[in-house]
Amino acid sequence: MPRKKHKISPRELATMERRLLPFEGEWERFMGQPEDRGVWLIWGQSYNGKTRLVLMLTKYIAELGEKVAVVSLEEGDGASMRRAFKEACMEAVNAKVSLWVEMDIEDIKRELRKQRSPKVVVIDSLQYLGINYKGYKQLKEEFPTKLFILVSHANEKNQPKGSTAEQVKYDAMVKIQVSQFRAKANSRYGGGEVLTIWEEGARRCPAGAELTSNDNDNTEYNGSQDNE
Known about the structure:
The chain has one domain: P-loop containing nucleotide triphosphate hydrolases (Rossmann fold), CATH 3.40.50. By secondary structure, the protein is of the alpha/beta class. The strands form 2 sheets. An 8-stranded mixed sheet has the order 3-2-4-5-1-6-7-8, with helices on both faces. The protein is globular, with a radius of gyration of 17 Å. β9 and β10 form a beta hairpin. The relative contact order is 0.20.
C-alpha cells in the first residue's frame, strides 16, 4: 500500500515521536540509537564475518524485546546455519527469533501481513531475494513500520554488488560494511566506532587496513580478506 501524501509543519515535525531501539554500550557507539523501522544494509565479501554480525545484531534486538525473522535464502537450515545459530547462542532468545527458509518475496509478504508478525526482518541475501529496486520500494512501502535488515554480497571494489544493492545503499538509514571481522556503520543516528565481530579472526588479518570515507556517504575498508 503506497504511503499517503501529507504536509507537515515545522512545529508538527518537532513534536513527532518515533520509537528508537534503546541500544547501549558498544552497539550505541557503533550505530547510535536507530529507529525501529526503515532499512539497514549490511555488505561484505564472503568469509569476513557478515553472518556472525547479523546473528549478533539479531540476538541483541531480540533481547530488547522485538520479534525477529531471519530469512535464510542462501544457507537455509543447513549445517552451516545450524552451527552459526549455536555459536551465537540463539536459543537464549528462542521465543523471539524464527528462521524462515524456502520462501520467496510473496511468501515473506504473506507472513508479514499476519497479526503479530515479526517487527524486524533480516533477509540474507538481497541477491538471492531476486527483486529489483521497484520491488524493494514496494516491500518497504507496504510495511512502513517494519525494520528490514538486508544483507548483500560485495563486488571487487568492496561495495554492494549489483544495481539493486547499490540503490538500496543510498536509501538505507544505516549502512554497514564488514571486512576482516570488523564492521563500520555509516548511520544517520550517530555512532561511528568500529565494531570487532570476532577478536581471533580480526587478529589473524593483516595489519594496516584503513577506514576511509567519501562525500557520497560511503565508508569502506581497504585491505585483504580472511575467513568468516
